[in-house]
C-alpha cells in the first residue's frame, strides 16, 4: 500500500524543512489539541460538541470539537492516516480546494450530530476520528482498485470499515445515528464531487460546471491583434524602404506621423 502514498501538493509555507500543506496544517492542529490535553486535561470538556450545550450558549463548541482529543495510540494513528490519505486527495484537487473539503467534512459531521441530538439524548462528537473515516472513504472511492494490506482491493477494505460502523447501529436500533451517518457521508460525497473528486460517479450530484477556458474565449481577440500586428509590420517596411531609397525627406508629413504611430503601437 505504501507505494501509492507519494503525492503531495505545493505547501502554503515551510517550518524549517516541514512543508505545511492543508493536510499537514490539520494534522498539526490535531497534535495541538492532544498537547493541550496533556497540560490541561479538563480543557477537553469545553471543546466537545453536544447540541444540548449549544442551547446553553456555548456556541464555540461548533468549531472546537475536532481539537477535543487526548493522546492515545488510536489518536496518533488517526493523525497518521489523515496525513496519508489526505495528501493524496490534496495532490488531486490542490491545497485551496482541500480547505473546502475539510470544511465540508466538518459541516457534515456537525450537522449529523445536531440532527441526531434532536432525536436522541447524549449525542456528541469530539476529535478527528470521524474526519479520518470520511477521508479514508473518499480515498477508497477515488481509487477503489488500489491495494491495501495483504493485497486486498481498496473497495473491499472500504466495505468492511463501513460495515463496522453500520452494523453496531443496526444492532442497537440506533436509527437516528444511522440516518445521521448516511446523511453526513452523502454531504461529504456531494462536496467532494463539487471540488473535482469522485468524477467517475456520475450519479453523485454536484459535478463542477464546465467552463470555457479563458484562452479559448480570448482566441479571436488574440488572432485579431496578431493580424493587425502583421499589417503594421508590412506598412513599416514599406515606409522604411522609401526612406532607404530616397531619404527621410521623401516622406510626407502624414507618412512621418503614420510611421511614428506604428512604432509606438509595436512597443
TrEMBL record:
Source organism, top-level taxon: Bacteria
GO CC annotation, single: membrane
Keywords attached to this entry: Hydrolase, Membrane, Protease, Transmembrane, Transmembrane helix
Record field: transmembrane: 20-40, 60-86, 98-117, 123-141, 148-168, 174-192
GO molecular function: serine-type endopeptidase activity
GO biological process: proteolysis
Span of domain DUF6576: 224-262
Disordered as annotated region, ranges: 210-233
Domain Peptidase S54 rhomboid: 57-191
Entry keyword annotation includes Transmembrane helix: yes
Topology within the bilayer: Multi-pass membrane protein
Chief location: membrane
Protein location: Membrane
UniProt-listed Gene3D superfamilies: Rhomboid-like
Keyword Secreted: no
Protein name: Membrane associated serine protease, rhomboid family
Organism: Tessaracoccus bendigoensis DSM 12906
Amino acid at each position: 500500500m505504501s507505494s501509492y502514498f507519494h503525492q503531495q501538493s505545493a505547501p502554503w509555507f515551510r517550518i524549517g524543512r516541514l512543508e505545511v500543506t492543508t493536510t499537514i496544517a490539520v494534522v498539526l492542529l490535531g497534535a495541538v489539541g492532544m498537547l493541550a490535553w496533556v497540560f490541561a486535561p479538563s480543557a477537553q470538556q469545553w471543546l466537545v460538541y453536544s447540541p444540548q450545550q449549544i442551547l446553553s450558549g456555548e456556541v464555540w463548541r461548533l468549531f472546537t470539537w475536532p481539537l477535543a482529543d487526548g493522546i492515545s495510540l488510536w489518536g496518533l494513528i488517526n493523525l497518521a492516516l489523515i496525513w496519508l490519505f489526505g495528501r493524496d486527495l490534496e495532490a488531486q484537487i490542490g491545497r485551496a480546494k482541500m480547505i473546502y473539503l475539510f470544511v465540508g467534512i466538518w459541516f457534515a459531521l456537525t450537522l449529523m450530530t445536531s440532527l441526531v441530538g434532536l432525536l436522541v439524548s447524549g449525542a456528541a462528537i469530539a476529535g478527528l476520528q470521524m474526519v479520518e473515516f470520511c477521508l479514508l472513504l473518499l480515498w477508497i472511492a477515488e481509487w477503489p482498485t488500489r491495494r491495501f494490506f495483504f493485497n486486498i482491493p481498496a473497495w473491499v477494505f472500504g466495505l468492511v470499515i463501513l460495515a463496522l460502523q453500520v452494523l453496531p447501529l443496526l444492532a442497537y436500533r440506533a436509527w437516528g445515528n444511522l440516518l445521521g451517518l448516511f446523511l453526513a457521508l452523502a454531504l461529504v460525497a456531494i462536496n467532494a464531487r463539487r471540488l473535482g473528486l469522485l468524477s467517475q460517479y456520475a450519479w453523485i450530484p454536484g459535478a463542477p460546471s464546465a467552463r470555457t477556458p479563458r484562452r479559448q474565449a480570448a482566441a479571436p481577440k488574440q488572432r485579431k491583434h496578431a493580424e493587425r500586428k502583421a499589417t503594421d509590420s508590412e506598412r513599416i517596411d514599406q515606409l522604411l524602404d522609401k526612406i532607404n531609397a530616397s531619404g527621410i525627406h521623401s516622406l510626407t508629413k502624414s507618412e512621418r506621423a503614420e510611421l511614428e504611430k506604428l512604432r509606438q503601437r509595436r512597443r
